[in-house]
Amino acid sequence: MATLDSFLPLIRGRLPGCPDIVLKDGVRDAAIEFCRRTELLSANVDVSVVANQSHYQLLRAVWGTWGEWLATPEYEFITSDGGPYLTADGTAGLEGVVAWEVVQLRRASQRLTPANRQEFQLQGWDVATGTPGYYYLEGDGSLVLGPIPDADETLVATLSVTPGASSANVPDALWYDHREAIAAGARAWVRRNLGDWVNPQLEAEDRKVFEYAIHNQNIRRARGGANAALRVRAQPF
After folding, report:
1. I want to staple 126 with a disulfide (CB 3.0 to 4.6 A). Which of 45, 87, 120, 199 is the partner?
2. Residue 97 to residues 51, 65, 140, 150, 230: CA-CA distances in angstroms?
3. Cis peptide before 147 (omega within 30 of 0)
4. Residues of the chain with pLDDT > 70: what percent?
5. Number of Cβ atoms within 10 Å of the Cβ of 235
6. Is the separation of the CB atoms in 51 and 151 below 8 Å?
7. CA distance 237 to 179
8. N-term to C-term CA, the chain
9. pTM of this prediction?
């Protein structure tokens, strides 16, 4: 894990006099936004489905220390390029992360269909029982299945994860591969929010660097980290 302090030498020189605690808030905010918008980090989580229970708390499943994860069902942490994410010493590299979105939910090779609360209510999936075929994520991080399960089973959820709102560290991938972008995002955050350092022109310059890095990471993810060709698929009406 990389500490928030690791990024400060890239920021201090352009924001002289700004307290370190403020700079670290900017680093954390930039790291969270970067992960949310790029799906840089993912976690494969086993969801133990119980008959007659439709809600499952995923945030509790993936938030915490690595030791807490080892005490729960087996999780496989991966990067958006599909490989296992490890630190330099070969240990698992995600600590203190939280679930942001469900990228997909699978039953063996079958993908369940994403939906939303309104559709659940319209279709009656929130009261019907059967084999779940649909899901959505509530605002509190709980996974909702519909119809309500009528039997026990195990599903696999791929989650997009981000650093937590109080994290003192961020995954090493943000330091090794994206530190200049995170530093630029942190400077833009300070220049947008903190009175003595507010500067719309410099904020726009830093924001441009940050947005460019997000764009490049999303293109890399779309190419699968293998320079695959990008194709457009027509959507049926």
Report:
1. 120
2. 29, 9, 15, 32, 30
3. yes
4. 81
5. 5
6. yes
7. 42
8. 46
9. 0.77
Q: Parallel, antiparallel, or unpaired for β 75-79 and 41-49?
A: antiparallel
Q: Cα dihedral sign for 39, 43, 46, 49? A: negative
In this predicted structure, what is the pLDDT of residue 30?
A: 97
Q: How far apart are CA 25 and CA 36, in angstroms?
A: 17
Supply φ then ψ for residue 131, to 5 degrees: -85, 120
Whose structure tokens read 């499952």?
56
Mark the ranges of the chain whose per-residue pLDDT is less than 50: 60-94
Predicted pLDDT at 91: 38
Residue that is written with structure tokens 């980290």 in the block: 225
Angle, CA 125 vertex, CA 153 and CA 63 arms, to 5°: 55
Closest CA to 43 of 141, 159, 156, 143: 159
- Tokens, residue 154: 């195990």
